[in-house]
Design goal:
Helix content is about 40%, strand content about 15%. By secondary structure, it is α/β, with parallel strands linked by helices. It has one domain: TIM Barrel. It has an 8-stranded parallel β-barrel. The chain is globular and about 50 Å long. It starts with a strand and ends in a 24-residue tail after the last helix. About 0% of the residues have low confidence.
């Protein structure tokens, strides 16, 4: 697995790349704007080019933009749905400008309209976006949910339903969040449980659809449907669960982005620890070359739900 983390861009887009390499990490996820805003200021072409150049020069192996939190591509409310579709189109353009590998997004919630109706609306939202951006290179990655409230795609079957309805395997894929999987009821801590999960992935979305992981331990118990991230090995998934994930050959070339809690007083220090913990679990792994100490000021704005 290609290990990395979600980093803030308060210090500038190229600085996020350099901060990643200082962790050290090889996979970078960012917000392209505030996740609590429908829109954001345009990305200056020079800033985008500086980001792309930094990714190349620093040897970053995988990149992603995480969509903001306000959009709901499955909303039954016409005004919210129209605004969400517009925000998604805007985020697609920003991701294309940055030339990242993936745009990771939460499918949304049906808000009482029912799961089937919500999934149909998500699929239609994505078909419309594809019509508007037929030549894009960024892969759009639906993220599995923890299953709280009326959120969609906590099950692999629901993810598979959307992928099949859109029918664009060269443009769409999936990001699997370990905390969300666990909260939705999947077991990662035993050979039997992890094997059952892998079998379900193969039978529903397919292994090729899995294009990224969010590597988060869980504060809440399995099946709780609570999205509560914890640092690696400090939560209820524990080291055994992550040992299986990072050593699975199916995910050898798939990025795994940390979204674990940070301490504002110590910047990315917890990321450094979490990445070291994950690498220590890899059988036969070679530790990366140490990089300069991470600056503490970059962690602001990097928290992901």
């Amino acid at each position: 697995m290609i290990l990395g983390a979600h980093l803030g861009i308060a210090g500038g887009l190229p600085e996020a790349v350099r901060d990643l390499r200082a962790l050290p990490g090889e996979a970078l996820q960012i917000f392209s704007k505030s996740p609590q805003m429908w829109g954001g200021p345009p990305i200056a072409p020079a800033a985008a080019e500086a980001f792309r150049a930094a990714v190349r020069s620093e040897g970053v192996r995988a990149t992603a933009v995480h969509h903001g939190y306000l959009a709901n591509l499955g909303s039954p409310k016409p005004d919210t749905l129209a605004r969400s579709r517009g925000a998604f189109r805007d985020e697609v353009g920003r991701a294309e400008l940055l030339a990242v590998d993936g745009l990771i997004f939460h499918p949304g919630a049906h808000l009482g309209s029912g799961t089937d109706a919500g999934l149909r609306t998500v699929a239609e939202s994505l078909r419309l976006a594809l019509h508007d951006a037929p030549e894009g290179h960024v892969r759009w990655l639906l993220e599995n949910a923890a299953g709280q409230g009326t959120t969609l795609c906590a099950s692999l079957e629901e993810l598979a339903t959307v992928l099949a309805a859109v029918d664009a395997p060269d443009r769409l894929g999936v990001t699997l969040d370990t905390c969300h999987l666990f909260a939705a009821g999947f077991e990662l801590r035993t050979d039997e449980g992890y094997g059952a999960l892998v079998d379900r992935i193969g039978a529903t979305i397919g292994f090729e659809a899995v294009r990224a992981f969010h590597l988060n331990d869980a504060k809440a118990d399995r099946g709780s449907h609570l999205d509560r991230h914890e640092n690696i090995g400090k939560g209820l998934i524990g080291l055994d669960g992550f040992r299986r994930v990072v050593n699975d050959p199916r995910w050898a070339n798939v990025p795994g982005y940390l979204e674990t809690p940070l301490d504002p007083a110590t910047g990315y220090a917890r990321y450094v620890t979490d990445l070291a913990t994950l690498r220590a679990l890899v059988v036969g792994g070679v530790p990366p070359e140490p990089k300069p100490k991470v600056r503490r000021s970059r962690a602001a704005g990097s928290t992901v739900k």
